[in-house]
Structure formats: structure tokens, C-alpha cells
Amino acid sequence: MHFSINRQNFIKSLNAVSRAISSRTTIPILTNIKIEVSDTQLTLTGSNADISIQTRILDSDTTAELIIKETGGITLPATFFSNIIKRLPADTFELKLEGLRAAITSGASSFTINGQDIQNYPQLPEVEDAESLSVSAAQLTDIISQTIISASTQESRPILTGVHFQLTGDSVKSVTTDSHRLSQRIVTLTGADAQVNADVIVPAKSFKELGAMLEGQDRVVIKLTANQAVFDLGNTTFYSRLLEGNYPETDRLIPTESTTELMINAMTLLGAIDRAALLSHESRNNVVQLTMKDNTAVLSGMSQEIGQVKEALDAKKVEGDDLEISFNPDYVRDALRVFHDKEVELQFTSNLRPFTITPAGETDNKQLQLITPVRTF
Length: 377
Prior knowledge:
alpha+beta, DNA Polymerase III, Chain A, domain 2, Proliferating Cell Nuclear Antigen, 6 helices, 18% helix, elongated, nucleotidyltransferase, DNA-directed DNA polymerase, DNA_clamp_sf, DNA-directed DNA polymerase activity
């Protein structure tokens, strides 16, 4: 293998595949990056067994300045190789194999790195017969950002660390819950070129990494198999294993009626909770309290050691029964951020039952956040 390439262009691809590489792996070769060169392209692959990312640089891409002199492949220590490339002095660099050693030159600088045979690197999953459809990258970003916040980070219930992703024709439903909160987003796909029915659980960590790669993309082709989800972003392909098992039935957790309602701008409420959390974070239970009485709403937080805060909320509407409810401010802050500057409705049934946050006027639960209150007595 022997090639030369524009360094900055190569670094973009290197950064993309590096998202899949972890130093904590039981398969030592997966701490390496796989580099392959064919007659027409250079391919980089990174994997941690759960996710794999492969990106291609074509010799027809003039910005890459890729000149292929000899085909071949090798795997090189990812962190060390990446640090070298990012610090080379010239705009281009050249890489040439000498057995299982890679000689890298750029300007007056030269390195030699020991590598391993690509035959020892695990093969990527085969997905030729998978069902596939093309979706808007913007819609996929919307789905991911609004639901991964409620996925569990505790491995005691692995199924809850995933995103329940259901495709029905041209509609997708995405749900997460960690048993303390729930996020749901239902979207009708625009420009979908196929009707696919699928019910899978994608690890939230995979979706988080995928979401970071969607900026600047127009369309994404999704391919689903029995144990893999594959997202084709043009010259980059993202592979994720799927979680096995049955996701809990979450529809029954969503209240169908309410006794108290609060309408307020999401950013206004977020700001008030930020201030209340300054004190709640200093207390042992990290709780803030919302009191709704006589068509007014007051948010309060307290720390025995520091003091307390009270703030009358600038609400658009407070209706229904009087209510005093306590909750974890961090959960509600995460939920409010997905609504940006929209007016939202908080609907309550009692101080011990979960409450919902939805866009004002929306009644179909297509964009919903659900929070379980904290018992303080």
C-alpha cells in the first residue's frame, strides 16, 4: 500500500471513524484503525464491536488530492496514528507500507509505525438483503436529540439503555425511558422512498454518535436486519448492533387526562429552574417544588446549609386544582431544552403521578416528555 493525500481532508475522515474506537475493548485489534486502499479509493474503518464506522475517500474527489500508487491495507494504533497525522508539518502526507510497518512522511518529518494484518480485523456485517428506506437527516436528528435524554445509563436493565425505534410505513416512533422519565417523538417521514415496518431497539450510545455525524447531511439511508442497524451517509456508513429483548409497553404510562395545567414558555421555565437548581444541587435530595394556587405558579428550591429561593413564574395560563409537586430539576431541564423557545403545556393529575410536557395546543403526544415526581414526605 502506498498513497499520498491532503492532510486536513484525511483528518475529517479520521475523526469520523475514531468515534467508534475505544481504548476499553476486549478485542485488542479494535484499538487500531483499519486502512485499505483499492484502485479508486481509500477506506478507513473503526469499531468497538457495538458500533462500526467506515468512510471512503475517492480518488475522484479533487479536494482530497488522493494519489494511489499501490493498493493494500493495514491496521495501525488509532490514537498514536491520529496524533501523528494531526501534528505533521505539511499540507499533504505520504504513507507507504514496508511489510507490517507504515512509513509516514510529511515535509521534513518522518515516522515509522508498527501495524497488524487487516486479516485479523473483524469483518463488518453483511446487510445486502436488509429492508431499507431513505429519510431526511434533519428529521432523524430531531428524533435522536429529543429522545436519547431519557435513555438509562445503568446496565442493570440493558434494554432501557436503548431507543425503542418503530417504523410503520412512513411514520417513525421513538421512545426512551429510564423508569424516572420518558421521551417520545412521533414523526411522519418526508420524502421517504419506501414503506418499512420494523420494531428495533438501538443503543442510545449509538444514536448519540450518529447524531453528531448528521450535520450537513441531506438524506440518510436506513437498513435494518435482525441484529444490526446500518445508516448510510453517502461516503460514510454507520453500523450499530441492536439490543435483544422486548421494550416495556410505554403507552400505558402516559396519562390520558389532567386536573391541573400550566402553560409557559419553555425557556422561561428553564431559566427559573436553573436558578432554583443552584440551591437544590447543594441539598441532599436535589429537589425543586412547584406550587400552583389561585391561578399563579411559584417555583422554589431550598438547601438547609445555604438557604432558599422562590420565584413567581411568568405563566401564560394556570388552570385546574391547586397542586404542590416536587421533582428532580435536572430531568425537567433536559426535557425543556428539546422544545427550544416554544410555548409548552405541563399537565398534572396529582403530586405523586407522572406529569407531561408537550408543545402548547398539541394533543396527539407526538412530542412528549414525561417526568415522575419526587415524594418529599
